[in-house]
Amino acid sequence: MRYELYYWASIQGRGEFVRLALEEAGASYVDVARVADGEARMVALLGSVAVRYPPFAPPFLKAGKRLIGQTANILLFLGERHDLAPKGEAGRLWTHQLQLTLADLVVEAHDTHHPIASSLYYEDQRREAKRRGADFVANRLPKFIGYFERVLAANPHGSAHLVGSRLTYADLSLFQVVAGLRYAFPNAMARHAGRHRRVTELCARVASRKRIAQYLASERRLPFNQEGIFRHYAALDE
Amino acid sequence: MRYELYYWASIQGRGEFVRLALEEAGASYVDVARVADGEARMVALLGSVAVRYPPFAPPFLKAGKRLIGQTANILLFLGERHDLAPKGEAGRLWTHQLQLTLADLVVEAHDTHHPIASSLYYEDQRREAKRRGADFVANRLPKFIGYFERVLAANPHGSAHLVGSRLTYADLSLFQVVAGLRYAFPNAMARHAGRHRRVTELCARVASRKRIAQYLASERRLPFNQEGIFRHYAALDE
Q: Which of B32, B47, B81 finishes a domain?
């Protein structure tokens, strides 16, 4: 079976968490919006009344006849199918808990440049962004990254992975979040780097995994840009 | 086994989604922070390095020796244990997908009064709140509620429940979100009411369920107030 991933064609965004899991799993998939008419097909599906389980927003994944939405929920599904999470309930829920905490961080990172409304341009909320960005960099960013550092330090199987002794989708997602934060907040991340060595090492290990390295070097990996979740504005990273 | 729920003692907040599931299930639980020294015990647990699966923030649930965090993740766990979600994978994931969409709405509702930083007072971000609140009421609120109305209309088993023909934790959570939105945005919700009759009816049905009605009438149900996620500021609900 070939999965169909539905997400915006021009950004990594939330779709990237799904792409990384599919790539690591070596799963067959098509990134629908990046083929001809794909984005129009995605928008049509979003508005369709014929869909059994209608998603609220991209990304969503078509698996056979099923449509599965919400990034963390898609990963819950893929984790079970492709051995990217423990089989047992405790480990499965713990992996998911970490993913949901990363999802919270993603929202906060996004809202630094869009604190008022996603429908407005950054330029229309620049002053508010500066205030929110300052709080994010001073308080929220170190709190979140410090948490994942603590989780790695506390893992009884060692700090090579967030959960147990094997790679999970939470590791892939932490890699992606840190990559995004480095793009958006290079100064803040450099200042904090000494305090989250385990996180840094985990990210380097993920990037060097065979399939992930191949993916990152391919044209399938979109570059970060100023339209995604993670955007670099110098005013927000002082 | 008696569950222990850890959440702030003075607000419904995110803990309320867990309380509603525990109440509907008739589960035995203690709301730890509301007994003597409970909040201090919660804060100690949050900072403890001895915890196997450390939560990032409340709410978290102690089930036997396990600590489970993230609201939607706790509900995933309780849904399976207490028959508050379908057993099959498709229905289980669909219920969770709806919960995660409600969680997105909760963040946006909260951020109307705290668009800059949770650590600041509303009074310190009043101007920004007015802008964000206006966008929420005009665009986001109708989009989210309209989505749940559409999900109810599309349910092949009828619009009595979000998922299939039986109550799930997603129904309980939709009830809670709508109750909160009515408290925070009475004018906006009244204006939109004609467009989401199925949602309104579902909420009334949830409120009249025996255990939920008993809970809502009890002292265990905290009132909405100006410290929780849903707060009423007239300036944000014009």
A: B81
